[in-house]
Specification:
2 copies of one chain form a homodimer. The first copy, chain A, has 342 residues and is of the alpha/beta class. Chain A has 13 helices and 12 strands. A 6-stranded parallel beta sheet of chain A has the order 2-1-3-4-5-11, sandwiched between helices. In chain A, α5 links the parallel β1 (61-66) and β2. The N and C termini of chain A lie far apart (83 Å). The first copy, chain A, binds a DNA duplex (16 and 16 nucleotides) through residues 3-5, 13-17, 19-20, 23, 27-29, 32, 47-48, 50-57.
Chain lengths: 342, 342
DNA sequence: TTGTAAGCGTTATCAC
DNA sequence: GTGATAACGCTTACAA
């Protein structure tokens, strides 16, 4: 790999002049420039980004740390960030944080040590104070989940509103025994959604019953267990609200034939093609990623400006068919009615 | 951010001694070491990875370039690579290449300029000669799609075998008019699968009919068009083979009520939960990513060793229900038969 | 055991 | 308009 020195030697100029030509500095005579250009081409010069970066003190790289890069929700966040970064000649480093909160600081700090231009993080830990020392040097933007014990920019969805809407929707369809299936209650989104669910019930005059709330679901096995427990209640639920896309994707396969109405937080590929098509609260992870990347660019450009710390994106209900299922109790009633009607 | 010099000043030693202590070099007296440790802690020293990297001439980073990071197939490749990289204190940079072959070289070279430790690429272009100059410096590993006009390591799936099996499976279920739905024929995987499809037909004594082959499907609209064309043939197909997961995900929603049997190359989340559950050729993208990352580590460790250039991973049929659908013609026959049978 | 000098490739500063 | 010099933070080679 040819360096600037090599090019300089070939063109009979100093390295600095090569640098000037390469960076389109006008203070070079046309003849010199031409000679240097020729040498550049001849040696097939490619700049060593690392050296430039090192000198500049900042890598043209945005870090993206998410719980699981193979989860389409986070994949779309990364895609949104990547698209905007690429437009600005930045690249994106991605790290999967996994499930273990204790491993997060190590993973994230090893990212940060690369003198990133900024970090977008959907954290799995519950204490982000370890990022304090980094926050002066590097723009930090939280997505999907807000920072805890740390002040930083964040872009999150309206968990409360979305869960409220989804739950209310089930109530409007005649359900009053509505189960809540979620993952870890320590995740802020899950807590916000549980709150929204609870508020919706109370606003509809339905008592909150914590036996209907099943947390900790991570996979199909967990979903099956959760369902089994719900089915053993004296009064079983006729509908379920699933608190995120991953839970929903574990839950749906276990649901066949149970006749439960469902609404779910988070759309995902083919949710509209399942039988029945799922009524969901649609989030927009690409926008989340794009906004986060934009904020990093803004902060790099105008460090002194003040920005809104917390941006809550609205979410909206996409009605499909899964909310129309009459639950078991309703079905029994229907069975009594149907013969009369025809 | 404190540098080694700062720590050195505080501990009254040279920067080199700090370096020794930090890197656990035994040639330091215990007292000195302790003093340096204290200073290290006091200043909260964090190494600047960029500087280390710059000096070493190689970033502890593996690049992953894929067509679309939000596509679960490539997400899983990235996840596999990331998991192995993380175990070896490497991180992973991801770039989305998009659809345009012409943009690939620019994106990839800007990645490579960062003096990566290695690059894993699922290319979208058809000429990888531009990577030749890089291949001496940086281990390049192709995944999913082989290199063209370039010699490099690659890990791919057995496209021919998988497509052959899937097609044959449909034949065994009584189909002889089998459509092929695929994306861009310039993608090697698609071509390999088309070959496999064709061979399977011929081995079964079924004439290949290119009117049954529909390429260029990228989204639901394209899938709908492709289906419309097939439906207009004098003799319509009774079954379809879909050549990759993305095509399948576009195709399945358009298929409702058409009564076509289906097998598809590539499993994806919830393929088993659709109605009917999809019979697929299962690939293993996580393994693909893991093997690719492992190869990079191996090449870094033992540059002189010789490695097998091309590794073809077997794929296997996962039989579910979608292959059991009797196509239209068969259904008509059935309709004639059913009254007799019951 | 510890320190000095030099350099990785690039660019800012300041001479000429 | 052009070039010598130094510097970014760290580590290797070589001295002391």
């Amino acid at each position: 790999m040819a360096t600037m020195r090599d090019v300089a030697a070939l063109a009979n100029v100093s390295a600095k002049t090569v640098s000037r030509v390469f960076n389109d500095d006008p203070h070079v005579s046309p003849e010199t420039a031409e000679r240097v250009q020729a040498a550049l081409r001849q040696l097939n010069y490619v700049p060593n980004t690392l050296a430039t970066t090192f000198r500049a003190g900042r890598a043209p790289v945005i870090g993206v740390a998410v719980p699981d890069i193979a989860d389409p929700f986070f994949g779309f966040i990364a895609k949104g960030a990547d698209a905007l970064a690429a437009q600005n000649n930045l690249s994106v480093v991605i790290a999967s944080l996994g499930e273990d909160p204790d491993r997060e600081p190590g993973i994230v700090e090893s990212l940060l040590r690369q003198t990133l231009s900024g970090l977008i993080i959907a954290p799995v830990s519950h204490d982000h104070a370890y990022l304090k020392p980094w926050s002066d040097r590097t723009p930090l933007v939280f997505v999907d989940r807000p920072p805890m014990r740390l002040s930083a920019d964040c872009f999150i969805e309206d968990d409360h509103q979305g869960a409220y809407t989804a739950t209310q929707h089930l109530v409007q369809h005649g359900h009053s025994r509505i189960g809540f299936i979620g993952d870890d209650a320590s995740i802020p989104t899950t807590r916000g959604r549980l709150e929204g669910y609870r508020t919706a019930l109370e606003d509809s005059g339905i008592d909150y019953d914590d036996r209907l709330v099943s947390l900790g679901v991570r996979d199909r096995g967990g979903a099956a267990e959760a369902l089994a427990i719900l089915q053993r209640l004296e009064v079983t639920p006729t509908a379920l609200f699933s608190s995120n896309a991953r839970v929903t994707m574990s839950l749906v396969p276990m649901l066949q034939g149970l006749g439960l109405a469902v609404t779910a937080f988070g759309d995902f590929p083919l949710a509209d093609t399942l039988s029945p098509a799922l009524t969901v609260i649609d989030q927009d992870p690409v926008t989340l990623g794009t906004l986060a990347a934009q904020r990093i660019l803004d902060r790099l450009e105008r460090p002194r400006r003040r920005y809104r710390r917390r941006t809550v994106l609205p979410v909206e209900l996409v009605e499909r068919r899964s909310c129309y299922i009459a639950g078991r109790l309703d079905q029994q009633r229907n069975h009594e009615v149907v013969p009369v009607a025809g």
